[in-house]
Amino acid sequence: MADWFGHIAGWLHDVFVQQFNVWILLGFAAQALFTMRFLVQWLASERARRSVVPASFWTFSVIGGSLLLVYAIQRKDPVFIAGQAAGLFIYVRNIWFILRERKENRANEEAI
């Protein structure tokens, strides 16, 4: 049993300590930003008592997703690159819809 724990401890050290560098730090920061989108969506939904996707969800998606794409490119991970690149298109498109709607709402308010 002690050998098993030693093996796991060695693996954790190799993964989280030995290879730690600025790219790993970027990856963790990017993942934290990307994860924030779920937190803001959950809190907004809890406050409204219905499912809500606030604009900040898409903002965190773009920022976190962009940084994760940079990280994936540096790591040369084709699966991670494809996933993040495809997601970025959706996130940017949703922000574009939000900005267009806000612009239309301002124009309608000024027309009144």
Structure report:
It is a single chain. With about 110 residues, the chain is mostly helical. It has one domain. Helices cover about 90% and strands about 0% of the residues. The chain contains 4 helices and no strands. Helix 2 (about 20-50) packs antiparallel against helix 3 (about 55-75) and helix 3 (about 55-75) packs antiparallel against helix 4 (about 80-110). The chain is elongated.
Structural shape: elongated
The percentage helix is over 70%
Characterize the main sheet: none
Beta strand count: 0
Uncertain parts: none
Mean of residue pLDDT? 91
Structural class: mainly alpha
Number of helices: 4
Per-chain topology:
Layout: H1 2-18, H2 22-48, H3 55-75, H4 78-111
Helix pairs in contact: 2-3, 3-4
Brief synopsis:
The chain is mainly alpha-helical and 112 residues long. It contains four helices and no strands. The N and C termini lie far apart (75 Å).
Structural features:
112 residues; mainly alpha
